[in-house]
Specification:
Elements (H helix, E strand, L loop, with lengths): L19 H14 L7 H5 L5 H12 L10 H14 L3 H6 L6 H18 L32 H4 L2 H5 L6 H14 L5 H8 L16 E6 L1 H5 L22 E5 L5 E6 L26 H4 L2 H4 L2 H11 L3 H15 L12 H11 L1
Antiparallel strand pairs: 1-3, 2-3
Helix pairs in contact: 9-16
The protein binds a DNA duplex through helix 3 and helix 6.
DNA sequence: AAACTAGTCAACCGCTAGTCA
DNA sequence: GTGACTAGCGGTTGACTAGTT
């Protein structure tokens, strides 16, 4: 297939910086007719620009909901977190920052954040320490190796460094999730085996905040959960979002619809569905025993993390199993504790 | 004051995926 | 099934500005 050129030079289309007059023409046209039809728009609007250029000008500059000015610290944290999850998927990152465009975020990343991370000794591509050549964590998928609550300030946190117990930042992230989900139900001594004694969960109080989310998972994924504990990637629940507790039903297509409450543990992670992948119950003709598994609780990254740092700890795994059973049978209220920022800060500090 | 360098960011380019006739 | 078209994405460029020599 032959791609038609977007901007035909022979038509004398203008390039380069937009003038206020051009902006005005574009704005008034879009106000009258709305977005779309970019190819024919320039002619209709009386602009000597290609449609692509008009669309970009609108998307990156003229749109009324665009936020201008300096990025806030929160926004910067979000960018770092989202970049760790999505890589250079600027549009995906932009969706997590209302009012910011992908182009703006891309520029900000390249001109500010990237340099700052390098200065801090963090590889902006992998989010790993640049000098950690022999670190075991280097074998982990790059996405995991980031503390999703890390801010520039946090990067300077000496205390965190001192408390690092040879786990990657990803472990902190994972344990945060565990803490968030299971709160003080988790056995302190078990946690101590992972992060050392005097763990931060000792004095956890609980708060509750529940929202509802529905997701669909194909029936093959449901079936695949039947061997609950083998941490193999083909058991993963791709595409599920963070939610708990869970109820489920199947639709006519064999998909399971999950209704769950969302739980989060830090401001930057709130509303970020990729950060959590809680369990669901797929009673699709499989034994109850088999319907509960980490495959339904964890996403790819978490699974890898379990393999790396936790799966060998039988007590810890038993704890998680118990919680999942409790949730399955509604034995206890699941009480997300994301309002307790201090709790997660403490956990983070254990891992740097 | 002029020349040079580095940083910033709007805009462009090339490509892909989705839609439709 | 095929090709034309459209929208959108990520990488790159280049104009502009600020700082330095």
């Amino acid at each position: 297939m032959v791609r038609t050129p977007c901007c035909k030079a022979e038509l004398g289309l203008k390039k380069g910086a937009w003038t206020p007059e051009e902006d005005q023409k574009l704005l008034s046209y879009l106000n009258r007719h709305g977005e779309g039809g970019w190819r024919t728009l320039p002619e209709k609007a009386g602009l000597k620009r290609c449609g692509k250029s008009c669309r970009l000008r609108w998307a990156n500059y003229l749109r009324p909901d665009i936020k201008r000015g300096e990025f806030t610290e929160d926004e910067e944290r979000s960018i770092i977190s989202l970049h760790a999850l999505h890589g250079n998927k600027w549009s995906a990152i932009a969706r997590g920052l209302p009012g910011r465009t992908d182009n703006e975020i891309k520029n900000y990343w390249n001109t500010h954040i990237k340099k700052r991370l390098i200065k801090k000794g963090i590889d902006p591509v992998t989010h790993k320490g640049i000098t950690s050549g022999t670190d075991k964590s280097e074998n982990l998928p790059e996405k995991q190796n980031v503390n999703l609550t890390t801010s520039d300030h946090d990067l300077d946190n000496d205390k965190a460094k001192k408390n690092n117990k040879n786990f990657g930042l990803s472990s902190a992230s994972f344990l945060n999730k565990v803490a968030n989900r299971f709160g003080k139900r988790i056995n302190q001594s078990v946690l101590s085996e992972i992060i050392g004694s005097g763990g931060p969960l000792a004095s956890t109080s609980h708060t509750t905040n529940t929202t509802t989310t529905s997701v669909s998972v194909d029936s093959e994924s449901i079936k695949s959960t039947s061997s609950s504990f083998a941490p193999t990637s083909n058991l993963l629940c791709h595409g599920t979002v963070a939610t708990t507790p869970v109820s489920s039903n199947f639709d006519v297509d064999g998909n399971v619809n999950l209704t769950c409450s969302s739980s989060t543990f830090s401001d930057s992670s709130v509303n970020n569905p990729l950060m959590y992948c809680d369990n669901f119950v797929g009673n699709n003709n499989v034994d109850d025993e088999d319907t509960i598994g980490f495959s339904t609780f964890l996403n790819d990254e978490d699974f890898m993390m379990l393999e790396e740092s936790c799966v060998e700890n039988t007590a810890f795994m038993k704890e998680l199993t118990r919680f999942l059973h409790e949730d399955e049978n509604d034995v206890v209220d699941v009480t997300p504790v994301y309002e307790r920022q201090d709790l997660f800060d403490e956990i983070d500090n254990y891992f740097g």
